Amino acid sequence: MSCMKTNMSARHIWGFERGDAEMRLARQAGWGRGDLIWERLMEAANADWAAGRGARARRLFGLAHGLALASFAKGDPRRATAPAALAAIHARQGRGRAARARRRRALRELAGMEAFIAGLEIKPRSRSSLFHMRMEIRHRDTFHSNLRTRYMNFAREMLETLEAGEGGAGHRHFSRWRGEKPNPFDDTRKLLGACLLLPDND
Fold first, then answer.
1. pLDDT (tens place) for every residue of the chain, 202 residues total
2. What does the alpha-carbon distance between residue 119 and residue 99 come to, in Å, rounded to a whole number?
3. Structure letter (DSSP) for residue 183
4. Could you tell me which of 91, 92, 43, 93 has the C-alpha nearest to residue 64?
5. What is the DSSP letter of 19?
6. Residue 167 and residue 13 in contact, taking contact as beta carbons nearer than 8 Å
7. Is residue 35 within 8 Å of 190, Cβ to Cβ?
8. 3-class secondary-structure state, position 170
9. Which one in 52, 76, 133, 191 has a CA-CA gap of 20 to 30 Å to 197?
């Protein structure tokens, strides 16, 4: 019975339901189906881990990793996120060798992080007033530069968590995701997903 529930839930996460408004918006914005499915898998895996459902969390992280390898080009930092998450889980469960292997894989995938951030496609943000929207348009280069600097800080935090290994505290990640997740379906959302869809380790 539990296996049936897991399979049904996994199908829901994959996003094949009719009337999936978020999937339609993502596709219209230029995202592939795999982009949003990966995000949903990672959200569900982190929620399961936080709720104490470790076996299901590991399974969903594994599905997300396979999807990332099949869907995302080398240099995309999302290819590192599931291995980094699994490294954290293995470390907390006392499986040091498995944790180190996943961590090494994640670090290899992050080799192109700076280039990815430099080439970010940044779509306009929803603004609460016409004034703020005009300011963003008028000072677009400065706005984009500041955003890239901010996102580089998220990337550094992810690297610090990975490099801390079993003995370090790392950072809060998943608990910040909902507040930080951009509304536009653009590269900034992909990058923040890569950096924040990790189990908290504070």
1. 333 344 444 555 555 566 789 999 999 999 999 999 999 999 999 999 999 999 999 999 999 999 999 999 999 999 999 999 999 999 888 999 999 999 999 999 998 888 888 878 776 655 455 555 565 555 556 666 677 788 888 899 898 888 877 655 667 899 999 899 988 899 899 999 999 999 987 5
2. 31
3. S
4. 43
5. T
6. no
7. yes
8. coil
9. 133
131-184 pLDDT, tens per residue?
Answer: 555 655 555 566 666 777 888 888 998 988 888 776 556 678 999 998 999 888
pTM of the entire structure? 0.81
| Other beta carbons less than 10 A from residue 173's beta carbon | 25
Length of the chain measured in residues? 202
Tokens 């291995």 label which residue? 83
Task: Please give the Cα distance from 31 to 109 (Å, whole number).
Answer: 21
Residue 193's nearest CA partner among 35, 13, 31, 11 is: 35
Three-state secondary-structure class, residue 17: coil
Task: Count other C-beta atoms under 10 Å from residue 116's C-beta.
Answer: 20
